[in-house]
Structure formats: C-alpha cells, structure tokens
Design goal:
The protein is mainly alpha-helical. The chain contains nine helices and seven strands. A hairpin with a 2-residue loop joins strand 1 (about 5-10) and strand 2.
C-alpha cells in the first residue's frame, strides 16, 4: 500500500501526507501497452496483480492499537488506484472512500462510492459490503490486466450497470489462450456474482495467482517490472523527474539565499559603523584648540554590537515540497548596530595651564 507519512490539520481542513510513488498507475500502463498492441507479458501482469492482492489482504487484516479488527473495505479498487513505481513494486492507493466498521459516521444507505465499472454487485444494489466486495473489484482488474481490454464498457452508466449485472463474464484463457488455466480459474472465482460462492479473500487470490505463475516461468522480478514501467511511462515519467529535480534545486537555493543576503548586508553595516565611530573620535580630538587644558588620551575604539548567528532551529516540510527553515534571532546586551560614544577627554584640573 502507499505509505501514509503524516496527518495534520490546516484550519478546518484535515490532510494526509502520502508517499510519492514515482511511476505510473496501472490504468496508464494498460493504455500505453494497448497503443503498442497486445496486453502486458503474463509474468509481469501476474507479478503486479499478486502484489496488489497482497496489499489489499494487508488492509483487510488491519487491526487497531487495541487489537480490534478494523474490517476495512477499500470500495474503490481499480487500475487507477494501483500505482506501479520504477522500483518495480505495485502499491494500492486512495483509501479515501474506504469504510471501517468502527467509523462513527457511516455512508448513507444506497450511496455508491468508487468507480462504477469496478463495483461489486452488492455495491450496485446498495447492500452492506465486506472484504469480498474488494475481491470482486480486484477480479475485474485482473481480467483486464491479463486480457488487455476493459471488461465492462459502455457509452453510459446505465448500460454499464446492465452489463455488470447480466453479461456473462468470459474466462481469461478464452480471451487469451496462453494464460494458464489455473490463473483463469482464480480470476473466475473472484468474479462470481454470488457473494457466498465468491473467492473469500484477497490473500487466497494472491496465492492462487502465484501458483499459476509457475506454469509461465514464475512471477516477473521487480527489475523486469521496473523496465516495463520505464518503457511504457516514457514522456510523463521524464516530466515528473525533471519537475522534482527543479523543485529540489529551488529548495536548495531558497534555503541558502536568506542567510547569505542578510549576513552580507550585516557585515557591510558593521564596517560602516566602525568607520563612523573612528571618524567621530578623530573629529572630537581635532575640534579642541591646542593648549586648552586637555589631558591627552588615546581615543577609545568604537564598540559595535555584532549580531549572533541564530542558526536553524527547526525544519518543517512533511506536507510541502520545499522545506522551510525557521530561525530564532539571538539577543545581545547591546542592541544590534548600536555604536557606543567614544570616550571624551576629562576636563583639566582647576588652575592648570
């Protein structure tokens, strides 16, 4: 699953900070592969589906800090929400419409969440859903990834619903004979419309797909998947990488610029104040007439209060692209930039000549 890095509040809005997955969605990969002609290689397709099924199984098995089962249901499993990184790993994302049994506010009865063409029959009816609903949705994804086209496609939502409830679902190996029968059996078991007869868990689906992969040389390695992702991602992946590099450079320049600018100006001010103090001292001595009863003393040097280096005391940036450096100013006994008056000569004693 896509990792959640942080949670926060900005005013009245709650937000999540999620892991950045550099890669493409399963939908983008399928569309790009379709343009080239044909579906994904079977070992690659099975590797991605197995990883997605395991991630979904982990979500279904999630428990609270007290050990209570959360009974989490994703309700929006689709190729759009399976992200595949250039590290060759598939991650399930977008739990924004997920439902946990312990959540206080429940979705209103009959309200359909998720993408229509990937909804389970019980979702379409507005019935209560459990983990088996997600298994049906993942079964649709598996069918499309292995066959290379959409399972339920029509010009309008009503026609899609009609196909989802009435259309016979062809087996994967009928559409693509090179797919092992054991893999086609697993996908067919996930796509049973009757809830009680359907494959019971995403973990079981993952196990059956992995066993079936042995008939085609096993699952593709993460390196092989990564190569396919880079090959199909092409221009948009390059654009993302260039954007990230540009933002990183901007952040680096922005974090260094304020300190250099401030201290260069501060150094110039210190030099100017020191010279001004020295000039005042020289002018004071020159203004006294010779022999006016002044006891000669060496002029006191001007005292300049130099600001302390505050240094960075914190970095905020979990929810932003550019880290913000927060600085706390130091304090000095003498205000910054203040010049102490040069010492004047003491008046001569009475009667001195």
């Amino acid at each position: 699953m896509v990792a959640t890095l942080d949670l926060g509040r900005e005013g009245d809005q709650l937000f999540q900070v999620l892991e950045l997955v550099l890669g493409a969605s399963m939908r983008q990969l399928l569309d790009a592969q379709s343009e080239r002609g044909g579906p994904l290689p079977i070992p690659v397709a099975l590797a991605l589906l197995t990883q997605a099924a395991r991630g979904l199984a982990d979500a279904h098995a999630a428990r609270s800090l007290t050990g209570q089962a959360l009974d989490l249901v994703h309700r929006d499993v689709s190729p759009h929400n399976v992200l595949v990184g250039i590290d060759g790993r598939a991650r399930l994302s977008d739990f924004g419409v997920a439902r946990a049994a312990a959540r206080v506010s429940q979705t209103e009865s009959g309200e359909l969440k998720g993408k229509l063409a990937y909804a389970s029959p019980e979702q379409l009816r507005g019935d209560p859903v459990d983990a088996r609903s997600d298994v049906f949705s993942l079964g649709i994804v598996a069918w499309e990834v292995l066959v290379g086209r959409r399972l339920f496609e029509a010009d309008n939502p009503l026609a899609i619903v009609d196909k989802m409830t009435r259309q016979a679902i062809p087996r994967v190996d009928e559409m693509r004979p090179e797919v092992p029968a054991s893999v086609a059996d697993a996908v067919a078991a996930a796509l049973v419309r009757g809830l009680d007869a359907r494959l019971s868990s995403a973990a079981e689906l993952a196990a059956r797909l992995e066993r079936g992969a042995s008939e085609v040389g096993g699952l593709a390695s993460t390196a092989e998947v990564a190569e396919v992702v880079r090959s199909l991602s092409g221009p948009w992946l390059s654009d993302i990488e260039q954007t990230i590099a540009a933002r990183a450079q901007e952040a680096s320049m922005a974090s260094g610029r304020p300190r250099r600018t401030r201290w260069s100006r501060g150094a110039a001010a210190l030099v100017a104040l020191a010279l001004a103090g020295w000039a005042v001292a020289r002018w004071t001595r020159a203004a006294d007439p010779p022999g006016a009863g002044v006891v000669e003393e060496a002029p006191s040097p001007a005292v300049v209060a130099a600001p302390r280096d505050p240094g960075p005391v914190g970095v905020a940036g979990a929810a932003t692209d550019t880290p913000a450096v927060v600085e706390a100013p130091g304090s000095d006994p003498v205000p910054e930039g203040e010049v102490a008056e040069p010492a004047r000569a003491a008046p001569a004693a009475s009667g001195a000549r």
